[in-house]
Structures are given as structure tokens and as C-alpha cells.
Amino acid sequence: MINNLIFIPIKVNGETLTFLLDTGVEETVLFSLDDKEEVSLHQLEKIKLKGLGANEAVEAFKSSKNKLEVSGFVDDNHELYLILDQEFNFSSQVGIPVNGIIGYHFFKDHLVEINYDRKKVIVYADSHIKIRKRILKSHKKEAISLENNKPYYTTNVVTVNQSHPSKMLIDTGNSDAIWLFLSEAPNLTLPSKSIKCFLGRGFSGNVYGQRARMQSFTFGDTNFKNPIGTFPDSTSVSSVSFVQDRVGSLGGGVLSRFSIFFDYPGSCIYAKPGAKISMPFNFNMSGLEVQHDGLEWVTQTYQERGGTAAVYTARQDNMGHVQDNLKIKFELKPVFRIFNVREGSPAQAAGLQKDDRIISLNGKNAHYLTIEKINELLKSEDGRTIVITVERKGVQLTYKFQLKSIL
Question: Does the keyword Chaperone apply (predicted)?
Fold first, then answer.
């Protein structure tokens, strides 16, 4: 679990790869094999793919008759798509190597439980009616429609005193709470207080838009007040073919507050509120977008005593010579870099810039941070002071600013 997204290991033709589990895609996609020596793919055919983003379709290869395995769950005839354009690789945004995305084919034949609190994905081999009866005792059943092999759920959305029954894609591959496409929902308007943001990267390039607090929307038995809504701009969605009446997506910012059973064969889901159900909807108040920028070797000095590491000290022997018990340990540690600074944000006002390398954040060495920890800090509390040291053109600079909730 990183940024409300789910990553699972799957063997592709015998090689273990890491996949984003994404109900918002139909086909299985590979876009990075950098951390693997060799992966065999069968029967390659050149094609083009289009999706979110402002650019043209990207080149890809379709591969057939592949074997995918995860925990005894086997598909001997799996079709997947390989994208060679590394601009689409989002490993740097989540901080771990991600090789691909899997969606519909993981869910299509079985009852699948995603328990966000326990960080478990369970595929039920037996879809007997007894399992569904047991689930109904604790979970609320909701009807979904499967269109283009993706799940859709209709809910009531209120933006600015305007209520609109809204057909939403259930999208576990989207880390935000809710996306709304205003071009598809003329009855909904953008709230007056909003901020322009970089939203991520789609199949067809970078996605930009605005974030604003909506009044409410409902999922299951829960009515959420003042959630953060994301509104992609019209250019970013121009190449997308929407199913009829779709106006947006429900993402991990909502789904991670529940335990959810996906029942594609039964055209329904079962949802139960989880531990995070009452948590407020926060956003990155700093204006900084941070990415993982590889690894570097770091040396640590220490002295071993009875199998444990202790602080290094030098001592003299009987001849007066200093005995050096120094031990050096080499470790690979992450490097983080700023890849976007939101215009008008506290970070921009302080002087931070794109491509600055993060050295420390609120006194913590960046080598011991993760993307998840950095994002948690930058979303944490209105008025919180952030002290960040960065390296720019070989010079270390320290900046100080306060998080400011403008929504």
C-alpha cells in the first residue's frame, strides 16, 4: 500500500514482477522491466494505445499466450501489452520498482476481497452462495455495472449546491478520492475556491487539472462531507472515450476507507467501513511533488560488540598504539528530488525549485524517508512548519515554510 494504491507480486512466464492492482483498466500492461535481467514474452504484435493525457497515442506491443501466476492463481493464456516509452513509468512517484498494471483479468472469474486495513487481497476459488450469505451479514451489497470490462457505480454527488446522480468508475488505480469530468456533467460546477495541480501521468501524457472541496457524495451507507474533488482539465481527457453517462471516478482515497468484495460475476460489490472511515480528506498543502530518483551508496561506520552495532571508539593497546576497531558498512539508500512546485504554493514562495534534491526534511535525513512518509508529512496539519534542506547545483540550501490549507 503506497498512496492508497495496491501493489502485488505476479510471476510472468516465471519471472516475478510488481503490478499495480487497478480496476480502472481492462488489459494487463507492462511498462518497465529495468530491474529484471530477462522476461520472455510471446507472439509480439505492434499497436498503439490512447488514454488520459494531452499527447498522441503511445506505441506498444501486444503479447499473447503468457503464463501469469500469483499464489497458486494461474492463467496459462494471458494477453498483455508492453509500453516502451519510459515516460509512462511511475515507479519514481511511488518509490518502488513497478513493472505493470493488472485489472479486469484479475477480477473477472472470482470473488475478490480487498481489505485495506489488513493489507490483504484474497481471491476466493469457491464462489458458492454460502460465502455471499456470510459477507451480507457484515457488508452492504451495492449493484455495479460492468462496461468495457470495468466496474461502474452510481452515487449522488453535490459540488456547489447542485446534486447530480453520477456514474463513477470504481478505480483502485487512482490514489485520489474522487475525480469529476465537468465536460460530462453540465449540472456540476467547479467550486470557486480551487487550486491548479499536476495530477499525474496517463497513457497519453501528463494530466493537469484543479482540486477543490465538494459538498458531499455517498458510497455505501456513508455520506462523505467536504471531500477533496479532483477536476481534470478538458485537454487531459480529450482522447478518452467515456462510457455513456460516466462523469468521474472513485479512487483509493475513498476505497481505502472500506473493506470491499468485488463480485464481477454477480455484478455487485460488498462494502464495509474500515478504520479510516472518519478520517478527514487532506491534500498536499506544501505545493511540492516529490519523486524517487534512484539509489546511492552510503557508508556507515560502527563497531560490533557481541553481534550488535555500537558507536565507534578508538582505544590504545599496551604498546600505546591506537587499535582501530572501525567497521564500515555500505548500504543503498534512496534519493528524492522535487519534480514539480505548484504555482502560488508555500513551497514556491519559500524559494524551492524543480529538480532540487532533498537532503533532509524536518531534521530527518532523506536517506531514511519514503515517498509515503514524505507525503504524509506534507498533508499532515494546517500551519505545520516544514524545514527542508536541498542541494541545488552542488550547494546545500535550507528553506522554511508553513503548510497552508487553502481549500
Answer: no
